[in-house]
Specification:
single chain; alpha+beta; 5 helices
Length: 228
């Protein structure tokens, strides 16, 4: 089992105690699309997936940065072992190498940073936000089909949207962020399967701009130099 799959199941474990045994065995379509799909099946390493990352909104100063997923072949020649550079400087997220990755780890890493930021901004517990996100993906996801431009073509994509905190019984503790929505745009036609991930917190009453608006978008994939 890949380390990414193991991490996915460990994240799911935070959710499972709240579900019946039969329900826990039945993953939702959103869970399967996000965490249980072989998004590297058609890739030929060495390859680097490049993403642009922007943070905006009225809450605090925004920034622009980059995310890179460097993929190389495993010892058996199959794809892939993944190393990630997620942001830089003081914002850099220290991440382990993922061996035998089939799903794209950028989804979990984006969520891990988001969870840490929610904890920083609200003083809440990371495990609580992790559980709310997984619960929303399990039972509250909205899934739609769309088309998007990629490499000069129009390709089919799927969009998964969740709002983990709208119905949260504890939302009064972080009411400012209760409208936060997560939107995952996936496509089999793009390298690594993940086109974009966006989180959005609506503008506060009387404000013209969102409180928070963060988005990571695929720039493309570039061949990495092979070892001599």
């Amino acid at each position: 089992m890949s380390r990414l799959r193991t991490v996915s199941l460990l994240l799911a474990a935070a959710l499972l105690p709240a579900l019946s045994a039969s329900a826990a065995e039945d993953y939702s379509p959103a869970e399967r699309a996000l965490f249980m799909t072989n998004q590297f099946a058609t890739l030929k390493p060495p390859l680097t997936l490049q993403y642009s990352y922007t943070k905006g909104g009225s809450l605090e100063e925004g920034f622009s940065a980059h995310v890179a997923i460097a993929l190389r072949a495993q010892s058996n020649g199959k794809c892939c072992t993944a190393n990630t550079d997620f942001l830089s400087g003081a914002r850099r997220l220290s991440l382990p190498e993922v061996e035998a990755a089939d799903g794209n780890p950028v989804i979990l890493y984006f969520l891990e940073r988001d969870i840490r930021e929610m904890s920083r901004l609200t003083k809440g517990k990371s495990n609580y936000f992790r559980k709310r996100i997984r619960m929303a993906i399990y039972e509250g996801a909205q899934i739609g089909e769309l088309s998007l431009p990629y490499k000069g073509k129009t390709v089919a994509a799927r969009q998964i949207a969740v709002s983990p905190y709208l119905d949260d019984p504890l939302r009064v503790r972080f009411e400012k962020f209760a409208t936060k929505q997560y939107v995952f745009t996936l496509s089999d036609a793009v390298a690594g399967g993940v086109y974009s991930i966006r989180t959005l917190v609506a503008a506060q009453p009387g404000a013209a701009t969102p409180l928070l608006d963060e988005e990571m978008v695929l720039d493309g994939a570039s061949p990495a130099p092979r070892n001599p």
